[in-house]
């Protein structure tokens, strides 16, 4: 049934459309199955696996990971304000930028679909928009001010709000996951590191501006 789900999700990515979660009840029994579906769909679509999303509930985890669609698209459910890191061959951060993760679902139930099915569907990822790269350096992440302005919504202005405080703290767990089958990752791989302030809902298309103190801003 995992192979059937891989083919069904790959078709959704190629042609659009969505699946009903009830039709796939029991297809994904645990996180290992969910990651197997991710791997299979990414392979079927020919993704280069040079972009990833990773996050953790706290410094000790649990952590979750997913390849990222190299081409943004889909009717959006929301966006997330993030900091993306570009890593070297040892998985260490060498550059950073502000990023907007696009959130969409191949499930008709959207974010109400069962958690394991959402994980199998690349954790509801629909692409990643990146600001200008700059050399990586530690910042006072807990006090870092950031602003998100979405068309038709009040501007969000906050300080901190990342579950790990330091976005780079997810990299060891990501590296273990990305290389678990013995496939080395390439230097220059991009890892976006988890949402600041959670999901910011939008409907269909998102227009806005994201800025982080010390990292600049960009419009999307």
From TrEMBL:
It comes from the Bacteria. SUPFAM superfamilies: FAH. InterPro entries: Fumarylacetoacetase_C_sf (IPR036663). This is 2-keto-4-pentenoate hydratase. The lineage of its organism: Bacteria, Pseudomonadati, Pseudomonadota, Betaproteobacteria, Burkholderiales.
């Amino acid at each position: 049934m995992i192979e059937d789900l891989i083919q069904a999700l790959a078709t959704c990515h190629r042609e659009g459309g969505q699946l009903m979660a009830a039709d796939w009840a029991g297809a994904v029994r645990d996180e290992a199955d969910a990651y197997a579906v991710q791997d299979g769909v990414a392979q079927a679509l020919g993704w280069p696996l040079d972009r990833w999303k990773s996050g953790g509930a706290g410094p000790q985890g649990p952590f979750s990971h997913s390849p990222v669609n190299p081409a943004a698209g889909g009717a959006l459910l929301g966006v997330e304000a993030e900091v993306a890191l570009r890593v070297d061959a040892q998985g260490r951060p060498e550059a950073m930028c502000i990023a907007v993760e696009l959130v969409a679902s191949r499930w008709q139930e959207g974010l109400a679909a069962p958690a394991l099915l959402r994980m199998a569907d690349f954790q509801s990822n629909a692409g990643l928009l990146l600001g200008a790269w700059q050399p990586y350096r530690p910042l006072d992440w807990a006090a870092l001010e950031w602003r998100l302005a979405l068309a038709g919504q009040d501007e969000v202005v906050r300080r901190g709000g990342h579950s790990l405080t330091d976005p780079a703290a997810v990299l060891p767990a990501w590296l273990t996951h990305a290389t678990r089958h013995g496939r080395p990752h390439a230097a220059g791989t991009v890892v976006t590191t988890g949402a600041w302030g959670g999901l910011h809902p939008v409907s269909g298309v998102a227009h806005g501006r994201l800025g982080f103190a010390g990292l600049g801003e960009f419009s999307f």
